Amino acid sequence: MFPGPLVSDADEDFPDPFVVEYDCGPHTPNRQEVPHYLLVIYAIVSWLHLQFNLPRVACNALLAFLARLLTFLNLGITPPFITLHSATRTLSVDSRIQWLAVCPKCRDVYPSALSKYAQDTCTNCQIPLFLPDHTRRGSLRAVKLPVIKYPYLPLSAQIESLLKVPGVEAVLDEWRKRPRNLGRYGDIFDGEVCHLKLRAPDGTLFFFESTSRDDWTSRGTLDQCQSRD
């Protein structure tokens, strides 16, 4: 026996945790106030990560080692942060990635600490969503970190980064040049959805180009599309 339809609360997804607000104010410390030796350390570790794909866990280990070393030498200087996330935030590297908060108990997702809708406790469980402002060593955290972090990059930003790859547009347009045979389905572009039902906001075909119209005409489907419209 099948269960009945799921009923959801109208305000369940308000505020939407996946709506990223990039203009929510400054979220990185003033680099002019950061000591130069810390900037050098952060730059080196970030470079190793971005240029040579050094894993995050290795970057965190390197930062922790350097922090312990400076503390052991007792130079009276501020030790570096021990996470790559804090280092890259200080340098404003990869700042578009948002760290959404996840409730440790019910696993519900909440907006990041940068959002104007951020909240400190879970609405359902009433337990903290973020770590304390100070670390165990008493240092003030550069950013407010969730207890459980959900790294999130909007799909629009992902598509933007993909389209910046040289040659990717030509690869994406390969579907226009593939031979089409009436009655044979080789990919999704042979179906009705792509060349008949999927429309742009202005009502025109979403996948449309002069060559694609020729393709539809050669297969005898353009007349069918027009007749069904």
What is the secondary structure topology, with strand pairs?
Elements lengths: L35 H17 L3 H18 L10 H7 L7 E5 L6 E2 L37 E5 L2 H9 L4 H5 L19 H6 L12 H9 L3 H7 L1
Antiparallel strand pairs: 1-2, 1-3
Helix pairs in contact: 1-2, 1-3
Question: Any overview of this molecule?
Answer:
The protein is mainly alpha-helical and 229 residues long. The chain folds into three domains: 29-94; 96-164, no CATH class; 171-228, no CATH class. Helices cover 34% and strands 5% of the residues. The protein has eight helices and three strands. It has helices spanning 36-52, 56-73, 84-90, 155-163, 168-172, 192-197, 210-218, 222-228, and strands at residues 98-102, 109-110, 148-152. It has a three-stranded antiparallel β-sheet, with no helix packed on it. Strand 1 and strand 2 form a beta hairpin. Helix 1 (36-52) runs antiparallel to helix 2. The protein is extended.
Summed up:
The chain has 229 residues and is mostly helical.
Q: Report the biggest beta sheet as strand number plus sense, adding barrel if it closes.
A: 3 strands, antiparallel
How many helices does DSSP assign? 8
> In terms of structural class, how would the helical and strand content be classed?
mainly alpha
The protein's oligomeric status is single chain
Q: What is the distance, rounded to the nearest whole angstrom, between the alpha carbons of the first and last residues?
A: 40 Å
Can you tell me the number of structural domains?
A: 3
